[in-house]
Amino acid sequence: MDVLWLIPLLLVPLLMWSSGTFVFYFKKCFYVGWMMVLALLAIPLCMLKSGGRDVENMRIIRVLVRHVKYFLGLRFDVSGWEHLQTEGPYVIISNHQSSLDVLGLMEILPDRCTMIAKKELVYAGTVGLICWLGGIVFINRKKTSDAKSVMAEAAQTMLDQQIRLWVFPEGTRNQKEDLLPFKKGAFHLAVQAQVPIIPVVFSSYRNFYLRKEKRFNSGTVRLRILPKIETKGMTSDDISSLCDKSFDLMQAAFRERLRLQTHEQRAVEGAEHSPRSRLLFPPTSPSETCLPRPPVPLPAPPPLLSPRFPIAWPCHEISSCLVDAWSGRPLARPVSAVCPDPHCACSSSSTCTTTSSTSTSSSAALQAVSGMTDGRIDACCSSCMTEGSGHHQFLLCFLPF
Ligand SMILES: CCCCCCCC/C=C\CCCCCCCC(=O)SCCNC(=O)CCNC(=O)[C@H](O)C(C)(C)COP(=O)(O)OP(=O)(O)OC[C@H]1O[C@@H](n2cnc3c(N)ncnc32)[C@H](O)[C@@H]1OP(=O)(O)O
Ligand SMILES: CCCCCCCC/C=C\CCCCCCCC(=O)OC[C@@H](O)COP(=O)(O)O
């Protein structure tokens, strides 16, 4: 009789090892349960620190949530930190795939930043209470007029109390291959307060988390912080174009990442359903998962055409397509050139972090610039610097057919 308690103790690891569906439910229950417990811990700490609802409580919440990723086998890889180095209030907008977004959000959450959330969240037990204590602004999505007036008030509070706000402009969770059309509230907020917008793009979770298929493997989420979009001088007439511009930038970054993910995914097929992939941390690079792999030393980076510009090599976004994950052979030839891409998102003073070039015309233009005609441009323009003349230096990733 005494040994009966051993059964679940042995059964859980066995099921974890053998069943992906079990892992899915186990991890989800653990996540919700553990967040509830953490919130319970955080409540007295927040009360002691600030005596009630205060954005400063987000520091405590941030510290407490940071370790949860290790239990779930998730890694966060952040690029574009420099774009968060902006003084004063701003609005952060990001895509929203799942409640797991909270983990990524807490990885980069700046000081004095809180969120806009649906009002139902306040009823989520201890989590609801901690959201309230953290100063989260609750809106009633079903009553637009109420939501608008709450957000107009929030714009004023942002300025009065120097607060930053994080909004999910899709307005709901979305796991599709494209972002949902953006709601306008975040842009009204930024224009009313005359503060910049900082877009943040979470890479798709589909390579490790599939709600319908009941899969929750280990995986890496790439968070890309894009350059800020200024709203100084804008009025309500500019809301639509601001919203469209932000959407286009984020959609391009999301799709570009998704394309690279699909490329990497092919390399790890087969390993995908192994217990290792469900339970352990993901390897740091796709090539690590590819066995056997001949020990081919990587070639030294070729000299850039214009040494005047300090371009990092290999740059983060492109590095994943520089080497064939199976053979280790170099796939792409990085070259430096002036960016002819009309969609290039370089802004005059900052480092360019995004642009994707899929249209035939810009692809042809890039090929002409790079002098290579026997291949396809897979990704272009990363770590691009702006020359005095307004030309953009960038790297091309060139895949031979
Ligand atoms: C240790 C502790 C451990 C504990 C762990 C837990 C810690 C947790 C901590 C932290 C976690 C926090 C995690 C939070 C996550 C929550 C996420 C969510 O809940 S996502 C859902 C809610 N979010 C939104 O919905 C986005 C914001 N929504 C909007 O901005 C919408 O625009 C909204 C609701 C204001 C209106 O939505 P409409 O569906 O009516 O659609 P539209 O097209 O945008 O607006 C209709 C018209 O109203 C105008 N409008 C919108 N906002 C306006 C405004 N502010 N002023 C004037 N006009 C406005 C628009 O321009 C549009 O008019 P025209 O079509 O252009 O003519
Ligand atoms: C009454 C609803 C409350 C649901 C929350 C259940 C408790 C969750 C417990 C632990 C998770 C901690 C993170 C909580 C913050 C995540 C909130 C969230 O992601 O809400 C979903 C909302 O953005 C969009 O909702 P819909 O997709 O429109 O639906």
Task: Describe this protein with a few key phrases.
401 residues; alpha/beta; Glycerol-3-phosphate (1)-acyltransferase; 2 domains; 15% strand; globular; binds ligand 3VV; binds [(2R)-2-oxidanyl-3-phosphonooxy-propyl] (Z)-octadec-9-enoate; acyltransferase; membrane; phospholipid metabolism; AGP_acyltrans; lipid biosynthesis
Explain what you see.
With 401 residues, this protein is α/β, with parallel strands linked by helices. It has two domains: 18-269, Glycerol-3-phosphate (1)-acyltransferase (3-Layer(aba) Sandwich); 274-401, no CATH class. It has helices at 6-18, 20-50, 57-65, 68-72, 101-108, 125-133, 144-161, 185-193, 239-268, 275-279, 316-319, 360-370; strands at 74-79, 91-94, 113-118, 137-139, 164-167, 197-202, 209-210, 215-216, 219-225, 336-338, 375-380, 385-386, 392-400. The strands form three sheets. It has a seven-stranded mixed sheet, sandwiched between helices. Strands 10, 11, 12 and 13 form a four-stranded antiparallel sheet that branches. Helix 2 packs antiparallel against helix 3 (57-65), helix 2 crosses helix 6 (125-133) and helix 7 (144-161) packs parallel to helix 8. Mean pLDDT is 76; it is low at 285-342, 344-363 and 369-401. Residues 32, 35, 96, 99, 102, 118, 120-121, 123-124, 127, 172-173 line the site of [(2R)-2-oxidanyl-3-phosphonooxy-propyl] (Z)-octadec-9-enoate (UBL). Residues 32, 35, 96, 99, 102, 118, 120-121, 123-124, 127, 172-173 line the site of [(2R)-2-oxidanyl-3-phosphonooxy-propyl] (Z)-octadec-9-enoate.
